């Protein structure tokens, strides 16, 4: 007869996404010629990691509400979900119009550009150049995609997330809250059998992941 064990596990999506973003940023730094192609997904996935972090906080602080997250937050957007989480943390001071949150909020425009992928069409008059430099080929997302801008945006995401964690630790004893923002294990699990209890935390192949914003 097979030996059975009752397993509980959690995979922390925000941690996995942040590691992805970090490694893409490493690629951008290593290949200057192709950096643009790495910076774009590094920033996009970094923002998605923040969205996943908000869901992690909801899962920890308001588990019954987050069990039906889609139903309960239909049409409310990321800021609506974050607002519900922060109401659970009465000591948190949410400065919506100041960095770092203001910067994160501004990144939503970039996220929508990348997610919806519309053609960027423009018409203008320019001085004709023999070498074709009268063509600009400027995309609205270009302002977000310098190496300095991506590193700065990730710093803001991390700083705001850490400030939320400081208060969340007072409201919950969930074991993953002890780790700094985006530096925890990728997953955790526990099991109960008739013979023994087991627990496990899982990191990715690179450990906690590279931290570039120093």
N-to-C series of helices and strands: EHHHHHHHEE
* Total separate domains: 1
Arithmetic mean of pLDDT = 89
Topology, number of strands = 3
How far apart the termini lie comes to 54 Å
Q: What share of residues is helical?
A: 40-55%
Task: Give a quick account of the main beta sheet: strands, pairing sense, barrel closure.
Answer: 3 strands, antiparallel
Question: Rg to the nearest angstrom?
Answer: 21 Å
Structural class: mainly alpha
- Can you tell me the residue ranges where pLDDT is under 50 for at least 5 consecutive residues? 209-214
How large is the count of helical segments? Answer: 7
Strand arrangement within the widest β-sheet reads 1-2-3
As a percent range, the share of strand residues is: 5-15%
Report on the architecture of this protein.
With 214 residues, the chain is mainly alpha-helical. The chain has one domain (12-180). The protein is built from seven helices and three strands. It has a three-stranded antiparallel β-sheet, with no helix packed on it. Strand 2 (187-192) and strand 3 form a beta hairpin. Helix 1 packs antiparallel against helix 2 (35-61). Mean pLDDT is 89; it is low at 209-214.
